[in-house]
Specification:
Helix content is 42%, strand content 9%. By secondary structure, it is mainly alpha-helical. The structure holds one RNA strand of 77 nucleotides.
RNA sequence: GGCCCGUUCGUCUAGUCGGUUAGGACGCCAGGUUUUCAUCCUGGAAAUCAGGGGUUCGAAUCCCCUACGGGCUACCA
């Protein structure tokens, strides 16, 4: 079966359709351990995962830690734990290894040296000795003269300190004497690079707009561009699914594949739209979470330097299925009206050609709704296992049977995990305070007497459950010529402490006669 | 500044070969259910498809221009 992924049909004549059922699909998620992964990163990992599973391929996790300056301790562990919580599993990674190990770029530095040598030999890369200060000066000057940004390219490289301007002997002696250098790619002067993106169609960039990017830094490690292309090649990656921020440098990567002679096995590119701030515009960032009151990270992150704590979806009370569902819809849709998916369903239905092109804003409200959907459809056993630790946390214990009873009464009211306790605590402990606002609204001069009379009658009930209390309430209100609300609302205030919770009969029946009457009597004396 | 990408209800989006009362979901509003608060049910408001030009009998859909938004422009990824 052949399906085309391309959306720009005007250019389809030039583009060969891609076979969907391709053998040996291999994709990778390649984060940099420079801090916590935010939801954009998780979504990229998710799409890679879904695509790999859907196609019967493999998913690789590769740690791109070639920048020693930005390395953050704990970040790699955080990435592993986050993705694991989400249920995004890898076939090859830094922990379990794999046929193309190592999967940490810092452990592959010898490999990159080999490959940069090839580029040097072929004349596609060259040594450059310009210092940071010199380059900075150029940038400032260019800016001051209003020429736009300085670019190290075919126009300017002839003016710089590099192997193209210096004699061979000079270059050799500098290197020999330990003079710091970088290695830059030599971008062709006049050519249009065609890039086929599975989401965006054909993208063309003229090489005059590209600069001679550093491929190899003076610290002996490669930059992203080199390491990424070399590793994707060596690890036999077939599809590069990554964020849109990489689109501008994709032509550079195409050029690298060509220079290495790997054009025939170059992966397909799919550049994902960005996740934007919920308010205003711009890419979602670390600070937005605290500012807007929702997490932007999958799990809690403690900054090792500043000791600051950033909230995570997990700790806020989201369950992985919901979190995954929230993320998958930020840019992808199934084309049907189905909104709730299991991971299996997502795998079955996912396809890259249903990913949109425009950035999407994260909606915290809808996120809660998703969580509510999943939580309220959980089985009793699962909900029990979620509620039990919360009781323990509050120093309360109850039998599983009792907890299940409670769960039946509150499961529809839960958005986030902590709502389990927040909506049920009064089944386990009596209220310590009584909501003043509610009291002032419902409490009348006759109320206390009415409640006391009701309590006396309730005491005489031989069977105390939902139905008998219900009958009693009906008879009592009729006999005393009061409306339901006049009795029930104050009763609720005494039992629960406010105007919330499931039906009063249910609460009464669950609590039992003794506890029910105790709370009424204590409440009555506290309120008067 | 330059280069690249994008633009359908407030938000996520359907609309992939041009003809739809532009559909769904969240949120919002109203009504119903309920003794309360939620849930739930029903209904409603909400997009002149960024704007302007074309092409066409007919354009959200194809072409061009403009505007706006975003990304990139490091010896960071």
């Amino acid at each position: 079966m052949i399906k085309t992924y391309f959306r720009n049909l005007d250019s389809q004549k030039k583009i060969k359709p891609i076979r969907m059922k391709q053998e040996n699909i291999r994709v990778r998620f390649a984060p940099s351990p420079t801090g916590p992964l935010h939801i954009g990163g998780v979504r990229t990992a998710l799409y890679n995962y879904l695509f790999a599973r859907k196609m019967g391929g493999k998913l690789i996790l590769r740690i791109e830690d070639t920048d020693q300056n930005r390395f953050v301790p704990g970040a790699e562990q955080y990435i592993l734990e986050s993705l694991n919580w989400c249920g995004i599993l890898f076939d090859e990674d830094v922990v379990q290894g794999g046929p193309y190990a190592p999967y940490r770029q810092s452990e592959r530095s010898e490999i990159y040296k080999e490959y940069i040598r090839i580029l040097l030999e072929k004349g596609h890369a060259y040594y450059a000795f310009d210092t940071e200060a010199e380059l900075e000066l150029r940038r400032e000057k260019a800016k001051a003269e209003g020429r736009g940004a300085f670019q190290y390219d075919f126009r300017s490289r002839v003016l710089m300190q590099n192997a193209l301007t210096l004699s061979e002997a000079e270059v050799a002696s500098r290197i020999k004497s330990g003079h710091p250098y970088v290695i830059r790619i030599k971008i062709p002067e006049n050519e249009t690079i065609h890039l086929r993106d599975m989401i965006r169609g054909e993208v063309r960039v003229h090489t005059a707009n590209l600069d001679d990017k550093v491929l190899f830094k003076s610290d002996g490690l490669p930059t992203y561009h080199l390491a990424n292309v070399v590793d994707d090649y060596l690890m036999k990656i077939t599809h590069v699914i990554r964020g849109e921020e990489w689109l501008p440098s994709a032509p550079l990567h195409v050029l690298l594949y060509r220079f290495f002679g790997w054009e025939g096995v170059m992966p397909q590119f799919a550049h994902l739209p960005l996740i934007l701030k919920p308010d205003g515009n711009g890419k979602l960032s670390k600070r937005d979470g605290d500012r807007l009151g929702f997490p932007v990270f999958p799990i809690e992150w403690k900054d090792p330097k500043t000791k600051e704590i950033y909230a995570g979806f997990r700790e806020t009370g989201y369950i992985p299925e919901a979190f995954i569902n929230i993320l998958v819809h930020l840019g992808w849709n199934p084309g049907t009206e189905q909104e709730l998916f299991s991971m299996e369903e997502l795998i079955a239905q996912f396809s890259l050609n249903r990913i949109g092109k425009s950035g999407s804003k994260f909606d915290p409200e809808k996120a809660k709704w998703f969580n509510h959907q999943y939580l309220s459809h959980k089985t009793d056993d699962v909900l029990l296992s979620l509620l039990a630790p919360q009781l323990e946390q509050h120093g309360v214990s109850a039998s599983p049977e009792y907890m299940i009873k409670v769960i039946h009464l509150i499961k529809e009211r839960v958005n986030l995990l902590p709502d389990l306790w927040n909506n049920s605590w009064f089944f386990f402990i009596p209220p310590k305070t009584y909501n003043e606002q509610v009291k002032s609204k419902i409490w009348r001069s006759t109320t206390a007497g009415l409640i006391a009379a009701f309590a006396t009658e309730a005491e005489n009930l031989s069977e105390f459950n939902h139905d008998t209390v219900h009958t009693l309430v009906e008879n009592f209100t009729q006999k005393n010529q009061v409306k339901m609300g006049q009795l029930m609302n104050p009763l609720r205030l005494l039992i629960v402490g406010s105007n919330q919770g499931p039906g009063m009969m249910d609460i009464a029946g669950t609590l039992g006669k003794t506890e029910f009457l105790t709370r009424i009597r204590n409440g009555l004396s506290n309120l008067n």
